[in-house]
Amino acid sequence: MTCEELKKIAAEKADLINVRRIVREQAEKLAPATGYRKQVLVCGGTGCTSSHSLKVIEQLEKSLKELNINDVLIVKTGCFGLCALGPIMIVYPEGAFYSQMTPEHAKTVAERHLVKGGEIVKELLYADTVHSDGSVIPFAEIPFYKHQMRIALRNCGVIAAESIEEAIAAGDYSALAKVLTEMSPDDVIAEIKNSGLRGRGGAGFPTGLKWQFTKEAAGEKKYVCCNADEGDPGAFMDRSVLEGDPHTVLEAMTIAGYTVGAQEGYIYVRAEYPIAVERLNIAIEQARELGLLGKNILNSGFDFDIHVRLGAGAFVCGEETALMASIEGRRGEPRPKPPFPAQSGIFKCPTVLNNVETWASVAPIILKGSAWFSSIGTEKSKGTKVFAVGGKIHNVGLVEVPMGTTLRTIVYDIGGGLPGGKRFKAAQTGGPSGGCIPATHIDVGMDFDNLTAIGSMMGSGGLIVMDEDTCMVDIAKFYLEFTADESCGKCTACRIGTKRLLDILKKITEGKGEPEDLDKITELAEHMKSSSLCALGQSAPNPILSTMKHFGDEYLKHIYAKKCPAGVCKSLLNYYIDPDKCRGCTLCKRNCPANAISGVVKSAHSIDTAKCIKCGQCIEHCKFNAIEKR
Amino acid sequence: MSQTIFEGTKEQMRALSDCIAAHRGQAGALMPVLHEAQNIYGYLPAEVQQTIAEGLNVPLAEVYGVATFYSQFSLSPKGKHQISVCLGTACYVKGSDKILEAVEKELRISCGDCTPDKKFSIESCRCVGACGLAPVMIIDGEVYGKLSPDDVAGILDKYIKD
Fold first, then answer.
1. Cross-chain Cβ contact A51/B89 below 8 Å
2. Which among A541, A433, A547 has a CA at the least distance from the CA of A497?
3. Strand ranges in A356-472 using DSSP code E only, listed in sequence order
């Protein structure tokens, strides 16, 4: 295909996409010209399909048929971001935001809203989009979306995830056309370097430099590689890009191929993401059919193709040298660097390796220019960052904000605060390699350098909010269990270090901690940082060090007072019955497997802590909230 | 390697040879072939590893090394219904450890094991990305979200009766 043909496809569906992007009044005027009176976008990402959005689509199709409606388009998209409210469905041109849809709701919307002359079904809308006076506000104006700026996620939840025509109409492949017709490889490198784009996978290395090193490296054959082995538990931004806009990744990899002189690319993706894998494979097939991958792309004489490789459940494969070993079909063990992938990567050839979110930021930089991109963010961290916000927060989901946005904005303005009126205790960023941000630092601007300065790290962008019920020693133990489990075992410092750190943490949470344990942790952590082969081992002590730094008192209370202030560590808790609340119903007594509860009917019961095995049965059965752990 | 007596059908054998033939000579073919072999057989018994080693001309030790390195490759058969409880961070802070405990209690086996009648096996996983539904468990690909330990027995009942 030629650039002109690409433009033609884009023009054909441009209005269809525009209806989803402009304000209601304009969209309503534009809609008739698209051939569709209304468009219904239903999220087909992992979050919403897990809560059965595909059944919602089925029901919609059935209802439209029954009602004889044929001028309404149903579009299965990627993630809208507000995963807590799934399944989500948006109806254009109104921009009506329906949440927590069921097939019954879908039937109702079809009958009352999608029919000719229908009205928005207000009671099924997401409550935040309905004013107290009954008027409906566009969802883009609700707090969750208002503070966001979507660059990497620009097409997620906007286009049909499995349609290359819609992707092209939304702008995909126009950056590739620009690069192949107007720019030299050096122009591309200059543009990426000037934009200040840094790797979104964790380390934050300047992307333009990486491309330059790979271009300058000697070698006939070179590779482009996409790291989609998103292993940080609780991070799912890469998955959402692959599910919602896979073509942007293919396009950016092709641009990099042209720039560094590579004809082949690999995408290494977690096997735990079946929908992402399927959409990637579909996208690659579509791109090959249209001649956007393969020989002589856009008539430029440039050849490039991409293969997908599946991971098999090894966290360490997110490390670049381990990832490349796995692509080569070997055990995913890291090796010492240098040589860096830019010199010797896949099959010992120079390789440029970036993470999904980084790839998703490339096309906008090419199209809008480096000056635009570098005007967003902070001095040393340019552009936007996607955070996967989860844990004890109302609006669990994906959030893309300019670098430097404060944690407070993310947690309270966008995230809607913590459920149950609980107090914000800390946010964990960077996953098992990162650390926690305590409430005292909630006004810190989130960028690479600020997070490192307060003892955490950006990592891939997982952000888990914790409230007063979370024990920080237990969380540190949780991460160490993870790294001890995932350590590949190649180097001693990591293999034994993670195990020993975990042993010490277990001891502390079981009430057997000794004062010198804290010194042992610090010393061991230093050795692991300096002698582990890869980032997994080097950063494994971070969750402990950062919780010790910010919540040292909790460690001391576990060790000296043998108490868990958050009431999590089972061995350190005793169960008590509040005599004022106890009605003497005997339910707890009858359900106690250890016969530790005594008392007679209609008088307050009590627990013999010596006999109590702390199983929690009594709490589960008490109807009066009379039993507490202290 | 595996203690279970291996029984493979002719169809499975044919599918495996087709897969090996399709990948023979390709660089880095071992992982995709192991993935497909596990799809065909449900696990990777010693006999299958041997066939792959010969077919791809790779030492058996290397096949075994790769098969045992990755947690998704299993050397022993799994239950008819595979239960996976997410212990990713978002699920963990919302109490997924208690969900796992409830499943273990209900089926009277530990995480990683299979019931004696081969009907259920339990494993833990690290994040399926459905964090909006935390805590979650997955049974045969079906995701159950926003769980409390009390929900577990009711959900398992469906599969027990099946």
1. no
2. A541
3. 384-391, 397-402, 424-429, 435-438, 462-467
pLDDT at site B2: 42
Which candidate, A356, A165, A406, A338, places its Cα nearest to that of A250?
A: A356
The pTM assigned to this predicted structure is 0.93
| CA dist., res. A107 & res. A60, Å (int) | 6
- CB-CB under 8 Å, A83 with B31: no
C-alpha–C-alpha distance, residues A254 and A257, integer Å: 5
In angstroms, the CA A362 to CA A398 distance is 20
Residue B1 — very low, low, confident or very high, per pLDDT cuts 50/70/90? very low
Would you say how long chain A is, in residues?
630
Q: Flag whether residue B23 sits within 8 Å of chain A, measured between CB atoms.
A: no
Q: Do A47 and B132 touch (CB under 8 A)?
A: yes
The answer to whether the beta carbons of residues A551 and A472 sit under 8 Å apart is yes
E-assigned strand segments in B25-105: 81-86
Token pair listed for A523? 């010393």
The CA distance from B100 to A27, in Å, is 49
**Angle at alpha carbon of residue A508, lines to A503 and A514, rounded to 5°:** 100
| Contact between A317 and A201 (Cβ < 8 Å) | no
Q: SS3 for A609?
A: coil
Please name the residues in contact with A216: beta carbons below 8 A apart, sequence gap of 6 or more: none
Quickly count helices (H) and strands (E) in chain A: 26, 17
Nearest chain B CA: its distance from A5 CA (Å): 35
**HSE (side-chain half, CA atoms, 13 Å) at A209:** 8
Q: Please say whether the beta carbons of A497 and A491 come within 8 A.
A: no
Which of A450, A453, A389 minimizes the C-alpha distance to A424? A389
Condensed to tens digits (0 to 9), the pLDDT of residues A469-525 reads 999 999 999 999 999 999 999 999 999 999 999 999 999 999 999 999 999 999 999
Instruction: Name the band, by pLDDT with cuts 50, 70 and 90, for residue B144.
Output: very high
A304 to chain B, any CB pair closer than 8 A? The answer is: no
Tens of pLDDT, residue by residue over B69-125, are 999 999 988 899 999 999 988 899 899 999 999 999 999 999 988 999 989 999 998
Backbone phi and psi for residue A92, each to the nearest 5 degrees, phi listed first: -105, 155
